[in-house]
From TrEMBL:
Gene: ispD_2
Record protein name field: 4-diphosphocytidyl-2C-methyl-D-erythritol synthase
Claim: Nucleotidyltransferase is one of the keywords in the record: yes
InterPro entries per record: IspD/TarI, IspD/TarI_cytidylyltransf_bact, Nucleotide-diphossugar_trans
Pfam families with a match to the protein in the record: IspD (PF01128)
One MF term in the entry's GO annotations: 2-C-methyl-D-erythritol 4-phosphate cytidylyltransferase activity
UniProt organism field: Mycolicibacterium aurum (Mycobacterium aurum)
Enzyme class label: transferase
UniProt keyword annotations, A-Z: Nucleotidyltransferase, Transferase
EC number(s) per entry: 2.7.7.60
Source organism phylogeny: Bacteria, Bacillati, Actinomycetota, Actinomycetes, Mycobacteriales
Keyword check for Nucleotidyltransferase: yes
Length: 227
């Protein structure tokens, strides 16, 4: 059974194209993510109609990689993009998918392999996680600190997230287009979730504001074999 990566490019990025196409450390976020996702299988980039041509042009240099670009139904929000990606799967509902997010430009190959391996071993939902290391405080309505939260049981959830294709199609169909959260939908049901080790460098970034910080992390990571 195959594993296919799905990368949504929703309509919201039409208002901030630089977050998708502007180079950071020599590569755009779109190209950087697709190159890494392609290391485990086919990649489907599912994009809002207004961005289809730009996405195809940006990925033209990757013609030797197994990458397809498909257009989402209007209005092209994240839910519609994921729906389009699921329809484009070669194995249909029998396959597995890695769902990624453009706001997470750093994808550690080791994390990618761990998620894909669990899917191939039979998992239906796989989340990469990292322990919370910051001090967490509870604050009341006045902004006064009331307690220190025990972080021992807290974890951050990262991308890419792995799913049985049929399960993802089911949970996405039940979410609102403007509030599409596949993790909350899975956790609210009686679905076993497999957790794997994430990557301490992975993070959600806001481009172009975080471009300098992101470039510094990319430079520090280099070509280390553990990445």
């Amino acid at each position: 059974m195959t594993v296919t990566a799905i990368l949504p490019v929703p309509e919201s990025f039409a208002r901030r194209r630089e977050a998708v196409f502007a180079p950071v450390a020599g590569q755009s976020t779109l190209v950087r993510i697709v190159r890494t996702l392609a290391s485990v299988g086919d990649v489907v980039v599912c994009t809002a109609g207004s961005l289809v041509d730009e996405v195809r042009n940006a990925l033209a240099a990757l013609e030797l990689l197994p990458v397809r670009v498909v257009a989402a139904d209007a209005p092209g929000e994240r839910k519609h993009c994921i729906d389009a990606g699921l329809r484009a799967l070669a194995d249909g509902p029998r396959g597995h998918v890695l769902l990624h997010d453009l706001a997470w430009p750093l994808v550690a190959p080791a994390t990618l392999e761990r998620v894909a391996a669990e899917l191939r071993a039979g998992a239906v939902a796989v989340l990469p996680i990292c322990p919370v290391t910051d001090s967490i405080k509870a604050v009341d309505a006045r902004g006064v600190v009331t307690a220190t939260v025990d972080r021992a049981q807290l974890r951050t959830v990262q991308y890419p997230r792995g799913f049985d294709a049929a399960l993802l199609a089911q949970v996405i169909s039940g979410t609102a287009a403007d509030a599409c959260d596949e993790v909350e939908a899975v956790l609210s049901g009686d679905v076993p979730v497999t957790l794997v080790e994430g990557d301490n460098d992975a993070m959600s970034v806001e481009l172009p504001a975080d471009a300098g910080y992101l470039a510094a992390i990319i430079a520090d990571r280099g070509d280390r074999p553990d990445r």
